Amino acid sequence: MTLDVSLEGIAALAGFFVLVWELRRGVRQMRFQAVLEIYKTNRELIQLALDDPDLMAVLEGREEVDSTKERRYLQMWLNQMTMVYLGWRNRFLPRSSWEGLRRDIQESSQSPNVRKLWNQLSPYYDEEFQKFMTEMIDKSD
């Protein structure tokens, strides 16, 4: 009887450790997938600019761009920045990825056309993201 109980306890403990290991592995996979999705969307947004000279002009900060196109394209970038921030805030992104993505957001926020649009659209974003973007813009001054 004692040997059976001991073996059952060992098996239960081993099962628990396997479960914890699988959960940790699942979390790492989820974080990796989140980073892949962010880079995939970034690549798609850049590809749009490569395929459309007007959008490339927006990325380059030139002023001779159709204002409607500029607004819509930059709004897609702001929405992407929001998703990156939410991914970080909700711990879907590993720290190692966050620092580079944060620097990308900070660099993007230096663009005069991004700042102009942010000033117009910031009330439509949640308060925490507004504070984050304000910090990014202030750091780039």
Overall mean confidence score, pLDDT: 86
Helix content: over 70%
**Helix/strand/pairing class, anyone?**
mainly alpha
Give the oligomeric state. Answer: single chain
Largest sheet: none
Overall number of domains:
1
Number of strands: 0
Order of helices and strands: HHHHHH
> Beta-strand level of the residues, as a percent range?
under 5%
InterPro entries: DUF6082
Keywords: Membrane, Transmembrane, Transmembrane helix
Organism: Cerasicoccus arenae
Transmembrane segments: 6-23
Record keyword descriptors for this entry.
elongated, mainly alpha, 141 residues
What does it look like?
This protein is mainly α. It has one domain (33-139). 84% of the residues lie in helices and 0% in strands. It has helices at 2-51, 53-60, 67-89, 95-108, 112-121, 127-139. Helix 1 crosses helix 2 and helix 3 packs across helix 5. The longest helix is centred in the N-terminal third of the chain and has 50 residues, at 2-51. The radius of gyration is 22 Å and the shape is elongated.
Topology of this protein?
Layout: H1 2-51, H2 53-60, H3 67-89, H4 95-108, H5 112-121, H6 127-139
Helix pairs in contact: 1-2, 1-3, 3-4, 3-5, 4-6
Brief digest:
Pfam families: DUF6082 (PF19560). The chain is mostly helical and 141 residues long.
